[in-house]
Every structure is written in C-alpha cells, then in structure tokens.
Amino acid sequence: MGGRCALALAVVSALLCQVWSSGVFELKLQEFVNKKGLLGNRNCCRGGAGAPPCACRTFFRVCLKHYQASVSPEPPCTYGSAVTPVLGVDSFSLPDGAGADPAFSNPIRFPFGFTWPGTFSLIIEALHTDSPDDLATENPERLISRLATQRHLTVGEEWSQDLHSSGRTDLKYSYRFVCDEHYYGEGCSVFCRPRDDAFGHFTCGERGEKVCNPGWKGLYCTEPICLPGCDEQHGFCDRPGDCKCRVGWQGRYCDECIRYPGCLHGTCQQPWQCNCQEGWGGLFCNQDLNYCTHHKPCKNGATCTNTGQGSYTCSCRPGYTGATCELGIDECDPSPCKNGGSCTDLENSYSCTCPPGFYGKICELSAMTCADGPCFNGGRCSDSPDGGYSCRCPVGYSGFNCEKKIDYCSSSPCSNGARCVDVGDAYLCRCQVGFSGRHCDDNVDDCASSPCANGGTCRDGVNDFSCTCPPGYTGRNCSAPVSRCEHAPCHNGATCHERGHRYVCECAQGYGGPNCQFLLPELPPGPAVVDLTEKLEGQGGPFPWVAVCAGVILVLMLLLGCAAVVVCIRLSLQKRRPPAEPCRGETETMNNLANCQREKDISVSVIGATQIKNTNKKADLHGDHGTDKNGFKARYPAVDYNLVQDLKGDEATIRDVHSKRDTKCQPQGSSGEEKGTPTTLRGGEASERKRPDSACSTSKDTKYQSVYVISEEKDECVIATEV
Q1: 1, 135, 353, 389: which has the fewest C-beta neighbours closer than 10 Å?
Q2: What are the C-alpha distances in Å from 81 to residues 73, 110, 113, 121?
Q3: pLDDT tier for residue 15 given thresholds of 50, 70 and 90
Q4: Spatial CA neighbour of 503 closest among 519, 491, 492, 514
C-alpha cells in the first residue's frame, strides 16, 4: 500500500510540472456481448423478480490512469474514473449520445488540465447488480469481465477502434483524445484564442500559431502595417494604412525634412536646417547674392551691379534717374521754349514747336512785328528792341498772343457744394443753404437768433441747430414744460395730479408728506391731498401735534428707564459693601490709619539725629498699641517705640475715655491682651512675637499708606500719611 501511494504522488508531481493545457479523453462503449449471462466466477447472474434466469444487469466501471507496463486495476485512477448506470442485460449495443438514462452520455469524457502525455492505461469492468440503485463496485462477486490495457494515443479527431474478448464476453469500444477550444498541439499545450483588440489582432492556425489579421504584424499582431512607402524611421502609424510623421518630418511618406522656420531659399537634409541655394545667403537664405541676375531691377537699359548681401546699384543712361533708373528726366521742366513755344521731351533732349512768327531752337527769334497784328482779343502789341513783339492781354485772357480765355472756375474755388459762376474777369460762388462767404466756407450760425427758450443751450449745425434743455423743459426749442408727474414723485402708491406748473400727490390711507413718503398715525377715512407747490411757497398747514407728542413721550420713557437702571445699580453696589466696623469712625483721621493690621502697610523707618516732633497725637492715643508697636519692635528691636515724653502723663487719662474703643481694636492672638492687661512698649519679649490679625482691619486695597519716622535720641515717632 505504501508503494502504491508513493507511485501516485510521483505521478501527480510529474503532472503538475507539465505545462498547463486543456483537452479531453473520450471513451465510446459500442457493444457488449454476454451470451450465457454468467459472472466472472462462472456463476449465473441472479435476475430480479420476473426476469429470466442468468440475466445479468450490466453496468461498467471505467478507470483511466497513467501508463503502466503491468496494469493494475486497483485505484488510484490518476486520470479519472466513471461508473455508468445499468446499460443493458447480457448482450446489448450502445448508441452515441444520451441513452435512456439521462445520467449517462456516450462517449464518456475525461477532461485534462495538463499536457496529454501520449500514453495511458485503461481498465473497463463489466459488473452485475440486482438493483439499478445499487452500483457498488467493491464486491468482486459482481464482476462479469475486466479489460486492462495500455496504449499510445496521439491527439486527433479520429477514433481508435478496439475489441476485447475474454472467452465468455466481448466488448467493442473506441477512444480518442481531442483538444478543448483554443488549445492546439500534440499535447494540447498551445493556447491560442483569436482576438481583435488592443492586445492583438489575429486568428489561430491548425497548430495554434497566431495568424495576424490583414494590416497587422508582430509577435502578438499588435503592430500596424503602415502605408506602403512610409519611411520606417521618420514615420509611424496607429492603424493599418496610415503614415504619421515624427517631429521634424513631413510629406505623404514622411520623407521630407522640415526646414528652419523662416528659411526662404534653402533646403535641408535633417530637420531644422537651412542650407542656402546658389546665389543666396544669410541665416534664412533671404539675402540675394546675385540680385541683378535674379531680379533685373534696373530699368530703361541701366547697368546693374551686385554689391553683396542682397544689394545692388543701377548706372542710369542719360535722361533717366532714380534708384532703378525708372524716372526719365524731363528736359522741358525748365520751360526752355520761349515766346509761347511748345516743348516736347525727348530722350536726353527736347524740341520746341514755335508759334507763328517765331523760329529758332527755343523759338527765340521772331519773324513778326506789331505791324502784322499778332495780338488777339484786344491785346495791345509792343515791339521789342531785340526783335519780336509782346502782347499785353486784357482781363480774362492769356497766352503769348492773348489767344486763351481765362476760366476762373477751373480751379474749383467754391467750397461746400457751392456753384461757381464765371463773370468774365472774375467768378462768383452761389452757396448752399447754411453757408456764406466769398468761397462759401463759412457756416451760418443758426444759433445767432437764440432759438432755445427757457435757458436752453443752443448747438449750431449745418443749416440747423439743436437745443439742450434745462430740467423741466423739453421740445425742439425747450418751450414745452416737462410734466411734473413724469418721474413719479409720489411714493407708497400715491396718485400724482398735475395742476398748472405744480403737481399734487393724492396719498393712500396711512401716508403723508409732500410726496407721501411718511407713515402717519391713523387718520379719519378719506384721501389726503398734499400740494407740494404750496409747501414750497411757505403756505402754512396744520401743525403735526400727534407726531410731536409721540416723540416727547418716547424721550420721557427713555429717560425714566435710564434712571431706573441707575438706581438698581446703586442699590446692588450698596448691598455688596461690608458692614461698618467698630473702629470706622476713628480710622478716618488725618493719617488714615485704617488698619489695625499693619502687615501690608508700607513702613519706612528713618533713624536720624535731628529732633522729630509727633504731629499726630490722636494716632498715638487711639492707635493699636499692642499691634503697631510690637510690629515696629519686631522690625527694629534696637529702637525704643515710645512717643514724646510730655504725652505720657496724659496717656492714663485719655485711656479711660477710649478704653472701650481701644479694647475693640486690640489683637485677638496674644494671651496678655485677651485679659485686658496693658502692653509695655519697651518689652523685648513682646517685640519678638508675630503680630496677630486685627478683627477690625479695613480693606487692603486702601489708597493711603502710613509712613513712620522714628528718632533714636528722643524716642519720638512721626506718623504721616502717604497718598
């Protein structure tokens, strides 16, 4: 058993190491013959109720496993196994496809998820069962016959026929191994699924090779075949038949480089070059180095000379001038012909056509005299001393012989569409409406008559004017007053009525004012009419007593409310003050020694040789002797704190008067003071004790502080008040 498990593990490991593939082994059971109806142990099959004796109800167990030289029918079936239902009794044939039992389909299929090894071992057992529901195969008593064989099988669609005979039974069957869809090759290990998307454009051949669709190439048919002739280096395509150029190239086949931008007369071998053609130079090949040959700029037979960098000069023939000799020199400009001769410009020359009676190159010679009457139109003739004559023309004529009538309107002297009239020796201009002057160039001021009324501003035009009206007027001449109700002066739904040069607002109920802009108290029913013009003119109306009274009442209520708030604040402050202290009356002295407790007072002790007088005897008589002086003694143990000597005699008398008050101001902490015994100011032991708190001490926040000045010589103390 251990060896069998090891063999199974080895087979499984070998299968897992093979390439993943897909195929199916198909076994077709065709015919089974058991003529005698015997089992493998030669016993007769026990038929069921109503069945003939030795009737074997036959079903099959099929086991497909790896190739074994000696086929063992025992499990495992490494390639698969199957148990059929009862297919027949004794001898029977099996048709293709599904039979009577829907649980069985012929052929029996064993799918493979790995490469087909080409060999196999097949075990087919024919078994008998008493009941169709009992298909157990472990009982060897049920065995009718067993087929155990091994074969070599190639992948293909054709079936391999086989017949197994055991003496008592015959089994006819066939088998084959075919690949699943999209799997090809001898072991069905080649996967190929046709596709036409971004991951490929191909179909599959008989052996699983990829056959690219038209227009595609490459291992996975992902590379489009560009337009035939498209440059492989400078062009590319995203779809078959396209040819897109890379940067710097152009043309249908992307075989033309793009010249440098601005290059005029240059070529390129690589993008962005500008190799100048012959006769051109410069960065952009725009400078003509042979300008005369290419452009022939010189005219009229001039000679052109190249000067480099696209420049040239023209040598003009006589009679011509200009940069390109395009201008002919007019020799008639100086008017060389005299005596009214007509000049004709020739190439580098001129000729004069002389009037009758003159001759010569410039008609300088006269053949006529005044006796010949050469002057026309009443011109006066006079002979010249050098020969010839001259005519003095009357007004309106000109020319050497006064033969030309002067047209004064030929120069269009009249402006602004005026008509010129020639009157012989002068001209007249008939002006258009709105203009005047000799030449009709003066625009008539249409505002001279002040056509704008009511202070309107006049603007002159051509035979017209316009008025800018002041507020309140309109119309061409500002003569029509603007309606007072035009701009809706009445508010809050009031109705505006125009009456002469004023307007009246008919207010809605509850509103008042010149323009009904105020909300009024309730009034008797009926509309209220307010005349704005009457208000502006100062006419009096009823005084608004209701509004005034309402305002006064509101002010009084506000003042009463403020007074009540102040009184409440004062009362609350008085309630928060502490109760009056027993020694309050005595503390309001000149030095304001309010505290029986002196721990927080600011004390300044100054020891000097000068005589110091006590200016506050009352403080000496009514002060807290025990607390203050003990405190002083504690701070300055070497100083005697007794007051002036002449006051010691009176101390007993005054002590009787103020005994009760002084007793209340004594400290609560010392045992001697609790019994009412007087405290000696010179006592050294008492000066060393800490002063207890007084029961009648006032607030620590008082703005008055006591200053004590003590003299060592006379034992005097001056108690002043620091504010």
Answers
A1: 1
A2: 11, 8, 15, 12
A3: very low
A4: 514
Beta bridge partners of residue 306, listed in sequence order: 312
How far apart are the C-alpha atoms of 3 and 168, rounded to whole Å?
Answer: 34
Task: Report the alpha-carbon distance of residue 418 to residue 420 in Å, rounded.
Answer: 7
141 by DSSP, 3-state: which? helix
Strand stretches in 99-213, DSSP E: 105-106, 108-114, 119-128, 143-152, 160-165, 169-179, 183-184, 190-191, 195-197, 200-204, 210-212
Closest residue by Cα to residue 29 from 169, 153, 137: 169
* Per-residue pLDDT tens digits for 516-537: 988 888 645 555 444 444 443 4
Q: Which one-letter amino acid corresponds to residue 542?
A: P
Q: What does DSSP assign to residue 375?
A: -
CATH classification at residue 457:
2.10.25.10
Give the ranges where 419-544 is alpha helix by DSSP (H): 532-536
**Contact status, residue 478 vs residue 452, Cβ threshold 8 Å:** yes
Mean pLDDT across the stretch 165-170? Answer: 85
* Assigned domain for 180 exists: yes
pLDDT at residue 554 greater than cutoff 70: yes
Domain ends where: 434, 465, 482?
Answer: 482
Mean pLDDT of the chain: 74
Say if residue 152's pLDDT is above 80.
yes
Dig out the tokens for 174 from the structure.
Answer: 């066939």
Mean pLDDT of 468-477: 85
Among 466, 482, 498, the domain-final residue is 482
| pLDDT for res 230 | 93
What integer pLDDT is reported at residue 166 of this predicted model?
82
- Is residue 239's pLDDT more than 80? yes
Question: What CATH number is associated with residue 175?
Answer: 2.60.40.3510
- Inform me whether the pLDDT recorded for 204 exceeds 70: yes
**What CA–CA distance (Å, rounded) separates 646 from 629?**
19
Q: Are strands 80-83 and 20-34 parallel, antiparallel or unpaired?
A: unpaired
Cβ(78)–Cβ(12) under 8 Å?
Answer: yes
Please report which helix (H) or strand (E) contains residue 581, including its range.
none
**Inside any domain, residue 138:** yes
CB 717 within 8 A of CB 709: yes
Is there a domain that residue 298 lies in? no
Q: Compute the distance between CA of residue 58 and CA of residue 83 in angstroms, rounded to an integer.
A: 11
Q: Per the domain annotation, does 513 fall within a domain?
A: no
Candidate from 189-198, 394-403, 458-467 with smallest mean pLDDT: 394-403
Q: Report whether 207 contacts 216 (CB < 8 A).
A: no
Nearest CA to 356 out of 336, 377, 342 is that of: 342
The neighbouring-strand residues paired with 148 are 123
- pTM of the entire predicted model: 0.35
Q: CA 719 to CA 708: how far, in whole Å?
A: 5
Residue ranges making up the domain that contains 449: 445-482
